[in-house]
Amino acid sequence: MRIVLGVLILIGLFIGASWLRHRFTTDARSASERAWGSGELKLAPIEEGWGRALVGVQSGVAPAALEEVRAAQQAPNAPTPPAPQPQRQPKPVQATHVVQAGENLGRICAQVYGTSDKRLVEAVAKANGLTSPNAIRAGQTLVLPDRAQLP
């Protein structure tokens, strides 16, 4: 008798949970439809000095001057010149490196080149005539070629 009662209680709890889930999703959908309307996104006008983030637009692009934006709005078919991109200066790569105790070629490459990619470490080992990237010793001077010369 206890088993039958336990099964009936479990079935009742399952039905109650299903009903609550259905009610919650129905309420959430109707609230979403009220908030978004017909599904079309309608953007409110922006006050001067504020901006809007657009998903899918490349970040790091210099913002356009307010005059350029107004000119583009007045003449929408006129081509606008691209915004100048800031020039990034590459970090200077040191030409040689004296191996210190406890260093390995992967750490040295990560320090100098910014990555310890296996192909890069093997290329630096090859450039130094090493049979293996693990064949370095403390006090050894390594030649570190320019990153553009390495794969």
Structural class: mainly alpha
* Average residue pLDDT: 76
3D shape? flat
Strand content: under 5%
**Under the CATH scheme, which class of the domain at 96-149?**
Alpha Beta
- Report the uncertain regions: none
Please list the strands of the largest sheet in the order they lie side by side: 1-2
Helical percentage: 40-55%
Count every beta strand, where a strand is a DSSP E run of 2 or more residues: 2
CATH architecture of the domain at 96-149: Roll
Order of helices and strands: HHEHHE
Which radius of gyration do the C-alpha atoms yield?
32 Å
Counting DSSP H or I runs of 4 or more residues, the number of helices is 4
The N- to C-terminal Cα distance equals 75 Å
The main pleated sheet reads as: 2 strands, antiparallel
Q: What is the CATH topology classification name of the domain at 96-149?
A: Membrane-bound Lytic Murein Transglycosylase D, Chain A
What does this protein structure show overall?
Strands 1-2 form a two-stranded antiparallel ribbon. The protein has helices at residues 2-36, 66-74, 105-113, 118-127, and strands spanning 96-98, 141-143. The chain is flat and about 80 Å long. The protein has 151 residues and is mainly α. The protein has a domain at 96-149: Membrane-bound Lytic Murein Transglycosylase D, Chain A. It contains four helices and two strands, in the order H-H-E-H-H-E.
Short overview:
With 151 residues, this protein is mostly helical. The chain has helices at residues 2-36, 66-74, 105-113, 118-127; strands at residues 96-98, 141-143.
